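[retry 2/3] Dihydroneopterin aldolase/epimerase domain-containing protein: previous attempt timed out, resubmitting with same input.
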Amino acid sequence: MMQRNKMIIEIKNLSLQAIIGILPHERKQEQNIIVDSKIWYNCTLTREKDRYTNNRSIQDNTISGTEMPQYHNVSQQDFLDYTIVINHIKNMLIQNKYGLIEVALHEILHKSFVQFDKIYKMTLRITKPDIYQDCVVSVTQSRNRKQFENLQK
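[retry 2/3] Dihydroneopterin aldolase/epimerase domain-containing protein: success.
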């Protein structure tokens, strides 16, 4: 029987340019956005599955070149690929040109639970660092899978 390991991915200071806001100048010009997220998920990897081969020797503690290790016995169903999650968040913010941060948070969390069944809880913060000179404005929302499923009913 496969043991489920509870893991947390933290994405910090994901910086991008996007249209977000309701003021006329915010609808025309992209602005700096910083995203932070904490994602709780179930991982089914075991040490036996974590075997890889590449062009380096076992004694070499550095990976030279650009070739990525080739994993055996590991599938996307065993773990949550944070690169895919990061691209998912970035693409939603860039493509949807949200008016309100609150709507962006709600939709990104919703779509994350739909797309990534391993996630059981997620917190997302969107920061607009340049909107004011004397402070930084952020809005945060957290949701767990049960809350998401209740919204679906």
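[retry 2/3] Dihydroneopterin aldolase/epimerase domain-containing protein: The CA atoms of residues 106 and 141 lie 8 Å apart.
[retry 2/3] clearing retry counter.
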